[in-house]
Amino acid sequence: MKLWTSCINCAEKIHFSEWVNDRVELSMSKGRELKLTCKACNTQGAYNVDDIYAKGSKLTQILALTILVIGTPVTFYFLWDYFFLTAYVYIIAGISGMLVVPATVYLTIIKNEEARIRRFNSHRTKGYNA
Q1: Please, how many CA atoms are within 13 Å of residue 45, restricted to the half-sphere of its CB?
Q2: CB-hemisphere CA count at 13 Å for 69?
Q3: Residue 58: its pLDDT value, please?
Q4: What single string gives the DSSP state of each residue in 95-108?
Q5: pTM of the prediction?
Q6: Residue ranges of the domains in the chain?
């Protein structure tokens, strides 16, 4: 997940990546105050974890899309011969359903990332002492 906050000095966005699920976890691993340096004005400042926000990682989106784009044709390629070996409609329907697996994996990855972002941005650590 990609995290960001605005610079105190110039209001530019400061981006960084962390593998955390919420602000409490970020606070436990990095402390209540994070020291970040703005790349635009080169100012270092202390930022409260409640001032940090999450947004989607492009790596996750690329991974999910790669699974969908490569997984569907590969699955279709391996199942192609079975379409013509059987005459039963239900078996053909089942084999066709196997083509849905890459799409299901894609949607699961995207939904989980959205849920993590929503959870991170909605919960604050006020009153929590790390």
Answers
A1: 21
A2: 6
A3: 87
A4: HHHHTTHHHHHHHH
A5: 0.71
A6: 1-130
